[in-house]
Amino acid sequence: MEIRAIAPGELDAADRLVRVAFGTFLGLADPSQTFGDADVVRTRARHSPEDTLVALEGGEVVGVVQVVSWGSAAVLGPLAVAPTRWDSGVGRALLDAALTRVDASGATLTGLFTFPSSPKHVTLYHRCGFAPQHLVAVMARTVAPSDLTPTTLAGSGAGAGALASLAAVTDAHYPGLDLAREMGAALDQGVGDVVVLENGRGFALCHLGAGEAASSVCYVKFAAVAPGPSAARDFAALLGGVDALAHAAGLTTIEAGVDTGRTGAFAALAAAGWRIQFLGVRMSRPGLLGWSGPEAFVLDDLR
Length: 303
Ligand SMILES: CC(C)(COP(=O)(O)OP(=O)(O)OC[C@H]1O[C@@H](n2cnc3c(N)ncnc32)[C@H](O)[C@@H]1OP(=O)(O)O)[C@@H](O)C(=O)NCCC(=O)NCCS
Known about the structure:
It contains 9 helices and 12 strands.
């Protein structure tokens, strides 16, 4: 078996494999349709192909793993192996290769989202140094009509400097946490936008009916406000901006994930009518909470 960075001609095979693997695991009637028109694998691989690894046997793609850099942290996933090759070590080999890359990058924490009720998943990751943390709730709500005009980065001509200034917000939650690369990937590919609070104390990266979001969905890939006495108020204002952005884009649903250990943020979403769609568990290596905790008004699900 060979493991290496994906080649452009392998994108379709990798995309198909990830859908079929997840759909088979979840018992879907047609696994090839898993995730609908959300385009997770291609969106990530197009922007940084070196962070998508494939496992090949006889020239055929039999496994895929992606890693995204969030500054001092790395996010691992999706990891998928062709169902015909399950339980023969392909997943573990891909994980080891991905973690070798992460360790060389100097990341101090790697996080992932997985299925808490699957002994296989929790064991596989645990053997590689990951420890289970809180449940993660993937939540959604219907977009509320809004006549606000949020401040956003797309089309504003904001360059790398604007992205870099938002790093102060995330750095206050976890040293070195920086979403600039993730935001740049969405902005460069025109699949999303970033809502920025006027006071500079928060931002939300949203995929807008494209990229990692299905066509009618605004997927809040990551959102955070600076810690402090105004955090709850800033968070409410940020969610108002996300509504306005989603409404202006003609989308019907907003989706976001929240670590349930972020009790303030979790309660705020529940009080605002968001409902849990499904649950996962956050695992981290080493076993640190990272940017989670009762006071952390942060949204992400590490998917
Ligand atoms: C999860 C997935 C990537 C694993 O890939 P894989 O190639 O089957 O995994 P491996 O064979 O390398 O390792 C699986 C390990 O789990 C172990 N395992 C399987 N069932 C287990 C159980 N019930 N309890 C404990 N361990 C179990 C196996 O014994 C094996 O460990 P070993 O090699 O030390 O014996 C693959 O099943 C897949 O694609 N699933 C669908 C997509 C998915 O769920 N991706 C991950 C989302 S977070």
